[in-house]
């Protein structure tokens, strides 16, 4: 099988009774507790919650960058041990290597031993997908923050991951660039579907991108308080009136604003056990 061919399709991700505690005894700090969650293959799930609610900790556990104190994380039914090869992570900052070109940074995401011709073709393809086809030879210092983050996304996607894990990937960008990156993610997901777990502080971003939104309680010992379906299909118009009651409900649950209008449609929520059918 050529290395450029996907070794797996979109992955199913499961968290079963997952908890993470740092320290021991009286000094123990319980970050998340009893997380039960399933991401169906191919869907986008956003994790939303107050600062300190363990959103990034949860993502790191799925990536294999950390280990649960109790419970199990599975990708396609296999327990995650160490860095999961089926997953790729994009962080808030691009974390590009300054001495490498953008093309070289993207190539770093490919498996060792990928044939040179295949390597060039894959890198060129993904740079085109994220709109950086003309900047392959530029270094990170020669491009904007948004372009650097596009390169980081291409570096993750070149691996053909079963799960794409995004830790507030657009938070450091200016408002307009952030909106463009959201649109790009929707376009890329449509062209090359994968399962996406997105950590964000932004309710509007979650509503724009996600099939479902997972709400975490305030820490310490955060848990899932609700899983909310976002019904309009992607791509979504940001002014879609169907999103207004969902936005009001989300902000109310996060302790912002007033209670949603009692006459507004009530979004479907579930405590933590979502359906398993692939979406979109």
Describe the structure concisely for a colleague.
With 280 residues, this protein is an alpha/beta fold. 28% of the residues lie in helices and 22% in strands.
Structure commentary:
- The protein has seven helices and eleven strands.
- By secondary structure, it is an alpha/beta fold.
- The chain folds into two domains: 13-86 and 162-270, 3-Layer(aba) Sandwich (Rossmann fold), CATH 3.40.50; 96-160, no CATH class.
- Helix 3 crosses helix 4.
- It is globular and about 50 Å long.
- The two termini are 27 Å apart.
- Class inferred from helices and paired strands: alpha/beta
For the record, what is the CATH homologous superfamily label of the largest domain? P-loop containing nucleotide triphosphate hydrolases
Q: Using DSSP, what is the number of strands?
A: 11
- Low-confidence sequence ranges: 1-7, 271-280
Q: Report mean pLDDT, rounded to a whole number.
A: 88
CATH topology heading of the largest domain: Rossmann fold
Count of domains = 2
> Number of helix segments?
7
Helix content: 25-40%
Which class of the largest domain in CATH terms?
Alpha Beta
């Amino acid at each position: 099988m050529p290395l450029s061919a996907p070794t797996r399709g979109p992955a199913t991700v499961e968290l079963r009774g997952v908890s993470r505690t740092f320290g021991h005894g009286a000094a123990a700090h319980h970050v998340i507790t009893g997380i039960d969650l399933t991401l169906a293959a191919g869907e986008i799930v956003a994790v939303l919650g107050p600062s300190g609610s363990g959103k990034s900790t949860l993502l790191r556990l799925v990536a294999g960058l950390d280990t649960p104190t109790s419970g199990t994380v599975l990708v396609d039914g296999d327990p995650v041990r160490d860095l999961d090869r089926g997953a790729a992570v994009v962080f808030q900052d691009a974390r590009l290597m300054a001495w490498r070109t953008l093309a070289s940074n993207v190539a770093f995401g490919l498996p060792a031993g990928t044939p040179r011709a295949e390597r060039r073709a894959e890198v060129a393809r993904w740079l085109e997908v994220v709109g950086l086809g003309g900047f392959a030879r530029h270094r990170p210092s020669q491009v904007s923050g948004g372009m650097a983050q596009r390169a980081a996304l291409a570096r993750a996607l070149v691996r053909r991951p079963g799960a794409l894990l995004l830790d507030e990937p657009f938070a450091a960008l200016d408002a307009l660039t952030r909106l463009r990156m959201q649109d790009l993610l929707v376009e890329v997901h449509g062209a090359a579907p994968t399962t996406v777990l997105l950590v964000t502080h932004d309710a509007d971003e979650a509503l724009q991108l996600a099939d479902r939104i997972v709400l975490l309680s305030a820490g310490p010992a955060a848990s899932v308080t609700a899983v909310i379906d976002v019904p309009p299909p992607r791509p979504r118009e940001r002014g879609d009136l169907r999103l207004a009651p969902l936005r009001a409900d989300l902000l109310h649950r996060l302790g912002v604003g007033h209670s949603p209008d009692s006459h507004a449609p009530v979004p479907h929520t579930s405590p933590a056990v979502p359906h398993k059918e692939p979406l979109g």
